[in-house]
Design a protein that fits this description.
222 residues; alpha+beta; Muramoyl-pentapeptide Carboxypeptidase, domain 2; 2 domains; 4-stranded antiparallel sheet; 11 helices; 52% helix; globular; binds zinc ion
C-alpha cells in the first residue's frame, strides 16, 4: 500500500521526474494485486452495464465487485496487522477505501460487541466517485447509486465481524439528497428494511441478464 500512497502523492507533482522514478514493481496489499483505473473509464463501464444489462443487474455486478474488494482488504488487514482491539481496527476499512481512490469514507457512529452480536455503523462518503460519474452521465435520478461502495463496506464489515453484515446507502447526492449516508448492521436485523440489492428480484435480474452471454460468446468465436 505504501507504493500506492507514493503514486497518489506523485500525481499532484507538476514535475515529470516522478514518472521516471516511480516504483516499477506492481502495487499490492497482502496477497491482492491492486490496480487503478481512470474514474471516467469506470464510469463508462458502469454505463455499459446499465444500458446493456439493466439497472438491477448492473447494481448486482458492481456490488459484488465492491464486496470482494472489501472482504479481501479486511482479510489482508487481519493477517498483516495485529491491532489490539476492534475499535482500532474497524476504521481501517474506510481509510483503505480512501487510499484506493473509491471515496473518503467517514464514520459517524460505530457500536461493536462480539459477545452480544452487536454491530451497528453509520457514516458517509462525501466524495463518492460513483455518484460523481452518475451525475455526469445521467444527472440526479430516483435511486441511491453508490453500489461499489455499498458492496465494499458490506464485504469489509462481514469479513471483519465474522457474520453476514448488510449495508444500505440511506442518502445519496446521486438522487438529489443533500448529503451521503450509509448504515451497516447484521443482515438478520434488517427485517423489512433489508437492503434491496440482497433481495431475490435483483438476483433474478442478474441471472436473466447474464444467461445469454455464453451463447453470444460462442457465436462470435465460430
Ligand atoms: Zn451515493
Amino acid at each position: 500500500m505504501k507504493d500506492a500512497e507514493r503514486k497518489m502523492e506523485a500525481a499532484g507533482n507538476s514535475s515529470p521526474a516522478w514518472l521516471a522514478n516511480a516504483p516499477k514493481q506492481r502495487t499490492s496489499f497482502g496477497k491482492s494485486h491492486c490496480v487503478m483505473f481512470d474514474a471516467d473509464a469506470i464510469g463508462n463501464l458502469r454505463k455499459e452495464l446499465i444500458e446493456n444489462l439493466g439497472w438491477d443487474a448492473a447494481r448486482g455486478i458492481l456490488e459484488r465487485v465492491g464486496y470482494q474488494s472489501g472482504r479481501n482488504d479486511a482479510l489482508a488487514l487481519r493477517q498483516r496487522y495485529p491491532w489490539p482491539s476492534d475499535e482500532e481496527r474497524s476504521p481501517a476499512g474506510p481509510r483503505l477505501d480512501h487510499l484506493e481512490g473509491i471515496a473518503c469514507v467517514g464514520v459517524r457512529r460505530i457500536e461493536i460487541n462480539r459477545a452480544t452480536g452487536k454491530f451497528h455503523m453509520t457514516g458517509s462518503w462525501p466524495d463518492s466517485y460513483e455518484a460523481e460519474q452518475h451525475l455526469k452521465l445521467y444527472g440526479p435520478g430516483d435511486r441511491a447509486v453508490c453500489w461499489t461502495l455499498e458492496g465494499y463496506t458490506t464485504g469489509f464489515a462481514t469479513e471483519f465481524f465474522g457474520e453476514k453484515i448488510a449495508g444500505l446507502e440511506t442518502s445519496c447526492r446521486g438522487r438529489g439528497d443533500p448529503v451521503y449516508g450509509f448504515e451497516l448492521r447484521p443482515e438478520r436485523e434488517w427485517g423489512r428494511r433489508r437492503p434491496p440489492a440482497l433481495q431475490e428480484p435483483e438476483r433474478r435480474a442478474l441471472q436473466r441478464a447474464l444467461r445469454p452471454l455464453p451463447a453470444r460468446h460462442d457465436r462470435q468465436r465460430v
